[in-house]
Every structure is written in structure tokens, then in C-alpha cells.
Design goal:
InterPro entries: UPF0750_membrane, YitT. The chain has ten helices and no strands. By secondary structure, the protein is an all-alpha fold. The chain has one domain. Helix 2 crosses helix 6 and helix 4 runs antiparallel to helix 6.
């Protein structure tokens, strides 16, 4: 009963709260992905799958990223709700557009690979947390992780770390060894950030 009382007393997000939180998440994820792309690196989750397809087939990352995420919206619609699904669809579409536009907006004259991978991972991680906390996701695996965390309490970051192991095994056939190693450092930074900081009991507003 006490837990229900506490939950009932939690303040709700306003429309502005949600819009600015989602916009922040989209921008941070897009920036992190553009930094990885500029270095020829990858990350995990659905973005990692999109990177591998993009590098292998020479297809624009933004388009691949949007298509790769489509099947996960079925899960989101059936198990989480249409509000979450539509917000996630809008966020993924926005990330796809921004990452395609990024080369026209930013140029990276020099980026030390390991530093760049860690900064990119942290940007994607904090952006993903922003999306989660405002009822959306920036990718298919994020949708799956969000659903499992909501239902079981198993941390989203730990699940994503396990799934990333599969993606990076496949990356060994596409990227040079140093690229895989550097990318793994960035993905580790991303997932540790999400695993440690994405906790419902640490966040009050709903």
C-alpha cells in the first residue's frame, strides 16, 4: 500500500518536459552515432546492426537504421503501448535524419580513436537514458530492453551488453581488428552508463 501511495504522489511530466527530454535524447544519440561513423567504428544494439549493413553494402546509415528498427515496433505496440511505440518511431526517424545530415553540420579533423569511442558511447548512453525516462526508445534492442526491464527488473544495460557480444562477433568479419577493439571500448562505456544510471527508483517524475 505504501508503495502505491508513493507512486501516486510522483509528479507527472508536462508535455514540454517530455518534448525537451526526447529532443535532448535524439540529439545526443545522433551526435554519438555521427562521431562513431566519422571514425569508421560501430556500436551495439540496432545501431550496430545498421552500421554493419551500411559498411558492408555501402548503404546510407540513416536509412538502414530506420528499416532495421521496424520489426521491433510490433513488440512495442503489442506489449508496451501505442504511446511508447509512436514516440519511439518519431525518435528513430529523427535520429535517422540527423545522422544523415551530420556530415554537413560537423567535421572531425582529428579524433583520438579510444577517446572518440568513449565520448560517443557516453553520448549515445545518456541520450538513450533521456529517451527511456520520457517514455520512448532510440532503437529496436532498446525497445526489447525497456520491455524486459519494466516486466522483470533486469537492467536494460546488462541485457544490451549481452546482445552486443553477438554484434561484435559479427563485426570481426567486417571491420579490422583495431576497429572492433576500439568500438568495444565505446560500447562498454555506453552500456555501463545505462546499466548504472537507468534505475526507476532513482527517478521521481513519471
Amino acid at each position: 500500500m505504501a508503495g502505491n501511495d508513493v507512486e501516486a504522489e510522483k509528479p507527472a511530466h508536462s508535455l514540454f518536459d517530455n518534448l525537451q527530454g526526447l529532443a535532448f535524447g535524439v540529439i545526443m544519440v545522433s551526435f554519438g552515432i555521427s562521431l562513431l561513423k566519422a571514425q569508421g567504428l560501430i556500436t551495439g544494439q540496432a545501431a550496430g546492426v545498421a552500421f554493419l549493413i551500411s559498411y558492408s553494402g555501402g548503404i546510407e546509415f540513416g536509412l538502414v537504421f530506420f528499416v532495421v528498427n521496424l520489426p521491433f515496433y510490433v513488440l512495442a505496440a503489442l506489449r508496451i503501448g501505442w504511446g511508447f511505440t509512436l514516440r519511439s518511431l518519431a525518435c528513430v526517424a529523427s535520429i535517422s535524419v540527423l545522422t544523415s545530415l551530420a556530415p554537413r553540420l560537423f567535421s572531425y579533423a582529428h579524433v583520438e580513436p579510444f577517446s572518440g569511442a568513449v565520448v560517443a558511447g557516453l553520448c549515445v548512453g545518456i541520450g538513450s537514458i533521456g529517451l527511456f525516462r520520457h517514455g520512448a526508445s532510440g532503437g529496436g534492442v532498446g525497445i526489447l530492453a525497456y520491455y524486459i526491464q519494466q516486466r522483470t527488473g533486469f537492467r536494460a544495460g546488462w541485457l544490451q551488453l549481452l546482445l552486443d557480444a553477438v554484434i561484435f562477433t559479427a563485426a570481426a568479419f567486417v571491420l579490422p581488428g583495431w576497429g572492433v577493439l576500439v568500438s568495444m571500448v565505446g560500447a562498454l562505456a555506453l552500456n555501463l552508463l545505462v546499466a548504472v544510471n537507468h534505475r526507476g527508483d532513482w527517478y521521481i517524475a513519471r
